[in-house]
Design brief:
Blueprint lengths: L3 E9 L2 E2 L2 H14 L19 E9 L6 E8 L8 E5 L13 H7 L7 E6 L2 E5 L3 E5 L4 E4 L7 H8 L4 E3 L11 E6 L3 E5 L3 H4 L2
Parallel strand pairs: 5-6, 9-10
Antiparallel strand pairs: 1-2, 1-3, 3-4, 6-7, 8-9, 8-11, 11-12
Length: 199
Amino acid sequence: MNKTFFETIKAVDGEIFHLSFHQERYESVLKYFNVKEIQNLSLFLNPPKNGLYRCRLTYDLSKNPHNIAVTYHEYQKRKIDSLKLVYDDEIIYNFKSTARERLDALYNQRESSDDVLIVKNSLITDTTIANIAFFDSKNWLTPAQPLLEGTTRARLLKEKKIYIADIEVKDLKKYSHVALMNAMIDFDIITKNNKEFFC
């Protein structure tokens, strides 16, 4: 079993964003694998002082003690104007693992769309890079059973800015707006017409 995981952390002009949520998720992975040695992620981060960067912090739990490595990548937002619905009832990606072959295979089914929206057991989950939320004219709702519980999703749930719900494919037409969320884009509301957004 692959035991290498990573965190994607946003940094702007040297300032690191929402590190406590990444620390919490990192610690939850260690707890699941019964790893007692917890490290302070902030000690490994020293992002460039100018510009928007994606800090990729990787840790390998197959080694004891586990190693932590960090690389920095200038960030360019990927344009997402369309999502293709793809179906996979067997996929499991509950930890932010470097083993993304199943996600990559689904992404390769996107055809002319920019990314895929994965449906598992008739329920909407995530895209390959982001959690998702839908506006029902009153509240923003995010799938109760995502593939991965993202840090931005966790923060917005805690702040009661979004709420969880089971969302089926047939429900998509009920919503007026959609938003994608991850550590780099935060909560990105898509302005494109909902009917044209899903393929």
